[in-house]
Specification:
Length: 168
């Protein structure tokens, strides 16, 4: 099933998820490095990466929701997509709690509670990421109907659709 929200022939949700995941994983790694070394600046990196990861995660979720709406009802893909979305919301809530806990002292070592929230968010995000892979790789969600080893460029596919629209 092809994604409904696309840019230049590619699913927008799949393009966007790398940014929040990278930021949130980077935030957690900055926390670990900060706790291990006490190096100044790392807690602030974790704080701003967390804030950026939450914002970009919400942005990516909008396009995931558009694609999820198009999945046929009463299918395994619809159920897996619902779990994927629910776990992503839980992950963002854990990271939001971590951000709120540390909001008054972003330049200081993370508190145990803030680090536990971020760690829980990372764990939940890992399970959700696996479910996202299941949606794409096993259930074919977001895959072009023209996919294959000899498929034409997605840009030529977009041009063909534009030409068809103009002819109508």
């Amino acid at each position: 099933m092809e994604a409904k929200a696309k840019l230049l022939g590619h699913p927008i949700h799949q393009m966007l998820v790398a940014l929040p995941l990278g930021l949130l994983i980077g935030a957690w790694l900055a926390d670990v490095a900060s706790l291990a070394t006490g190096k100044a600046g790392l807690p602030e990196v974790a704080y701003w990466n967390t804030a950026g990861g939450i914002v970009t995660g919400l942005f990516a979720a909008m396009f995931g929701f558009i694609d999820w709406i198009a999945i046929p009802l009463n299918t395994r893909a619809k159920r897996v997509g619902a779990w994927h979305a629910s776990l992503n919301i839980l992950m963002l809530l854990f990271f939001t709690m971590s951000l709120l806990i540390r909001r008054f002292a972003p330049a200081h070592l993370p508190s145990v509670a803030a680090f536990i929230c971020a760690t829980a968010g990372l764990g939940v995000g890992g399970v959700s990421g696996w479910l996202g892979g299941e949606l794409v790789n096993r259930l074919g969600i977001g895959i072009s109907a023209n996919a294959g080893v000899e498929a034409p460029s997605s840009l030529s596919d977009a041009k063909q659709k534009q030409d068809l629209t103009r002819k109508r």
